[in-house]
Amino acid sequence: MLPISVPLHGPLSRASRWAWAAFVGLALAGSLQWLPGSDASPPLDPLAEVCLVAPPSPYDPASGLALLAPRPVPADARCPVCGMFPARTPEARRWAAQLIFANGDAQFFDSPLSLFLYQQDVGRYSRGRDAGEIAARYVTELDGGAWLAAEAAVYVQGSRLGGPMRAGNLPAFATAEAAQRFMHAHGGRLLRAADIGPDLLRRLDTRAHAGH
Question: For 47-94, how does the pLDDT look when each residue is reduced to its tens digit (9 = 90+)?
C-alpha cells in the first residue's frame, strides 16, 4: 500500500487536493498503457492503494458527559471503515455505533458491522492505536434510538432490511424479544456479540476493497 493518507475530517487542503488529483492521474495514465496479456504491470487501483484516515474525536470536558459515556455523533464525523457520515440523516443515525478509548477519544461508525470490523484490527484504521486501549463500545438500538453497550446488545444477521453497508449490518436491539419481532418482519437470525467473529465479519464485509 502506498504511504498516502487522506484525512476525512473537514475539507481537504489545496495541497491535499493537488496530491490526490496527481495520484489519481498517474494511476489512470498507467491504466491506459496496460492491456491484459502485455508485459507491463497492471495499473494501480487508487481506492485499494490509498488509506483513508478518520481520526478519533477528542473528549470534551465541557460536554458534561462522563469520560466513557456515549456521546452524540458529530455531524462531521466519518466512519473510519467506510467513510460514511453516521449523523447526516435520520436513517443513518438508526444504525450508528461508537467506540471510546481509555483517554476519552471516540471513534464513530455507520453501523455495528463497521464497529466490529474496526475493533478486530484497530491499528489498520487508526495508526498508533490498539485494541487494548478500547474502554467502551456502544451501538444504537434500531427501534428506539438509545445507546446500548455493544457487548450486551442483541443483533440480527441476514435480514432483508439493508442498512448503510447493505446486507449484514447487524441491527442492534436491547432484548431478544425485540430482535425476534424484527426477525418476524424482516427475517434473519439472532446473534450475541460473542457470536460475531472474524469468519462471519469476513463474509459480511461488503466493501469493494476489503484491504485498507
Answer: 443 446 689 999 999 999 999 999 999 999 999 999 999 998 888 899
| Region of residue 112 (left: phi > 0; alpha: psi -120 to 50; beta: else) | alpha
pLDDT in tens, 182-206: 999 999 999 999 999 999 999 998 7
C-alpha cell at 202: 469476513
* Cell numbers found for residue 143: 427501534
Cα-to-chain-centroid distance, residue 62: 27
C-alpha cell recorded at residue 12: 481537504
Do 109 and 23 fall within a single domain?
A: no
CA torsion, ordered 174, 65, 110, 163, to nearest 10 deg:
30
C-alpha cell at 87: 449523523
Residue 44 lies in domain: 5-49
